[in-house]
Amino acid sequence: MQGRILFVAGATIGYVLGARAGRRRYDQIKAAADRVWNDRNVQKSVNDVVGTVQGFVKEKAPEVQDAVVGQAKKVAAKVKKADDDGAPSPSI
């Protein structure tokens, strides 16, 4: 309960301060954030991370595909067996 009260109090204080700061301060903060995001070094880092993640995904995709296909075959075999036994199909 104390955590909720602190959260609501913090949100209220943030709202009030934000409302007082107004649109001009918001525009200043947004402009600063845009400058940082569009910085050459930041974009190089972002591109490096994206490249690393894409390489990892390409490397692991066959393993994930094999795991999914293997699990699908197990489920299909269970359904077929239940169907052959005349028992109701299991819910998945």
From TrEMBL:
Q: Report the domain of life of the source organism.
A: Bacteria
- Name of the protein in question: YtxH domain-containing protein
What organism is the protein native to?
A: Amnibacterium soli
